[in-house]
User: What shape does this take?
Amino acid sequence: MVVSVKLEEYGFMQDTNYLATYHHPFPPSEPKELCNTDYSGPHNFEVFVDPNVLKNPWEYSTMLNKIYIDMKHKFPINFSVKNESLDQLYVRVMPMFAEDRYFQELVFRCICHEQLQDSTNQDVSELVAQHIIRCDNNKAQYFGDKNSGKRLSIVIPLSSPQPGTDSVKEFFYFVCKNSCVGGMNRRPIQVIFTLENYNGTVLGRRVLCVRICSCPKRDREKEEAKREKHENPPVKKRKAERKLPPSTDTVDRKLPQSPDAVDRRSYQLNVNIVGEENYKHVLKICHGLMSSEILKLDGKNGNDAPFRKCLDEVNVLMNRFSE
Assistant: This one.
């Protein structure tokens, strides 16, 4: 049996007689388990998103396993199983919040988009209007009801691949945004694809992250850059320590390491001394220091010349007060 894909303009025609005419019953309306872990299962169940090409209305990030798409734009999902007989196999499509703290909460449309007057709700029931995702397969069945606390999901019978292919392609589109108030409220979501038999036993599971937004390319690039920065943080360069020049006070108090190592550098002391007696006292201290250095050098090789010059200048200043 080959599924016929109808690419109608965002409409949805529910075949109410399908359950009565289809020779196998559908799985239970509610999933038997809640899980968002990939599981290939005995049939090696795989789910593929077509790669990004020019003019596609969606962006797919292989790094994040995430699709970015605006409302009402259809995108294909490819389902593949390694099994000769696909009889009585179904795919359940169920949105869930990605963060653990919202894991148990139901995902449904905002109040604005849920209204039957909305253009996306033509010819659909109130229960179907609650779903954030639609499928173009006219055999799809919509289960769940947020008002009674039953999780929303879509179940489609899995058909055999078309000749020359190894996968079945189904088209979906979203009818609400992550940013809608009263619905997803900016919370990230995932779509869980589970392969089930008519008893609802899970035979495979695949997870696809989703962002329904107005600028798919911008948001994809932004989130990929954020992930790369998190996984490869930039190396912080340590600032070179500034070495301050030694203070004059430090130089003045530095003593020579040996008798032959004599500091003969001159330092200008521009300090106003308050009080005549204090000024005379400073001159006497300087006179004593210079005289002591001259005595230690004892005229060796003229090394005492800078000290004698300083001593002469001090004597001149002292004589001015004795006149």
Remarks:
- Residues 276-297 form the longest helix (22 residues).
- The radius of gyration is 43 Å.
- Helices lie at 18-21, 111-114, 216-231, 248-252, 276-297, 305-322.
- Residues 1-23, 248-257 have pLDDT under 50 and may be disordered.
